[in-house]
Amino acid sequence: MRIAELVSIRSVFSRREDGQYTDSARTYQLILKYCLNLKRNRQFENGVDQSFTLWEITDGLTKDNHNLSPKPTKNRIENRQSTIKKKLHNLVDLKLIRISGSRPAKKGSGTTLTYQCTNFGYLLAWLIKSFDESNDEELIQNEIHAIVREIFTIREQTSASNILFSKFVKKCNEIKEFRNIILLFRQGIFDDNVIKISDLFSYVWRFDFEDLQTRIRFNTLFFETLSELDSETQELILYALKLDIERRMKAVVDNFENYEQARFMLRAEYNKVVLEGVCWGDCDRPIYVGIDLRDYRKSVVDSYSEQTRFLSRNCPECNKDSFSIRII
After folding, report:
1. Contact assessment for residue 180 and residue 172, using Cβ atoms and an 8 Å cutoff
2. Backbone dihedral region of 188: left (phi > 0), alpha (psi from -120 to 50 degrees) or beta?
3. What residues have CB less than 8 Å from 256, skipping those under 6 apart?
4. How far apart are CA 177 and CA 153, in angstroms?
5. Which of 115, 176, 183, 253 has its CA 20 to 30 A from that of 319?
6. 267, 272, 270: which is closest to 235 by C-alpha?
7. What is the pTM of this model?
8. How many CB atoms lie within 10 A of CB 70?
9. Are 119 and 126 in contact (CB under 8 A)?
10. Alpha-carbon span 22 to 49, nearest angstrom
11. Average pLDDT, the chain
């Protein structure tokens, strides 16, 4: 029995041991690039409808470029429809494609579903193109910036996190730092913890740059942008960051039950993140502490200058310099 494919953002970029994309990843990428080409062609033709049917995309992806006849071959399309349909619906689950409606079937009296790429799908399509060095880097950067700006357009019901991201991206673009946002996107799509598209944006917020000075620069810019927002929006954003850090910490703690109890005790402290540390001195056990979120982010950035994945400080119970907290 064939094992069902576990689908994530990583599925679009999965590689074999030899470094080449898997056949499955290539199919996902071809679908997204088809959507991008369709959008550009129809914009050139002044068309607004960027939807397509399963038959149309299967025809587009399987057509022999050397075949001078523009007519679709029924057998060629039907042989691949099942695979393309499965991949399409996986991309729908990832919010990269959406079912946009239906059209009358070309034969008979029924209807056929239509699909359309989302802005998230277009974002990944341009990221795919960014790995091809023959493409125009400046064009790709401008296109990705336009998509991200559209995704995070501030409207009446815009979330606090989206408001921050919108303003942060604007600042990055103004000071010629947006290329580093693209770098984070490119890193994030290969991270095993990036399952959904929202995970990819959460990854960006961690500013996981190899270069220390870039980390410091972005962290400073982050808190500058945050400080410009009203107090309620700031609190909501800090709470969202708190939940993200605690979710990742929860996956690696030694005592899940004790950690959850500590989280519960500090659930109302939106600006404090609950972390598990270990005292290697007199206590010799895991201890759970609440740390100011701003201090934690700064400490994480500083720690990379010391090539470590742990934060060191005095133990909150025995007060000895024997307490370490895992960076997650």
Report:
1. yes
2. alpha
3. 250
4. 19
5. 253
6. 270
7. 0.85
8. 7
9. no
10. 31
11. 88
Torsion angle, CA of 264/270/272/274, rounded to 10 degrees? 30
The three-class DSSP label of residue 234 is helix
pLDDT category of residue 174 using cuts at 50, 70 and 90: very high
Tokens, residue 264: 């519960």
Give pLDDT, residue 106.
Answer: 73
Strand pairing partners for 278?
A: 286, 324
What single letter denotes the amino acid at residue 254? D
258, 320, 327, 248: which is closest to 287 by C-alpha?
A: 258
pLDDT of residue 263: 95
Cα–Cα distance measured from residue 185 to residue 125, given in angstroms and rounded to the nearest whole number = 12
Residue 311 pairs in a beta bridge with: 325
- 3-state class of 201 per DSSP? helix
Give residue 185's identity as a one-letter amino acid code.
Answer: F
pLDDT in tens, 208-229: 898 889 999 999 999 999 999 9
Instruction: Provide the residue type at 57 as one letter.
Output: I
Report the alpha-carbon distance of residue 254 to residue 145 in Å, rounded. 41
Confidence bin at 270 (pLDDT 50/70/90)? very high
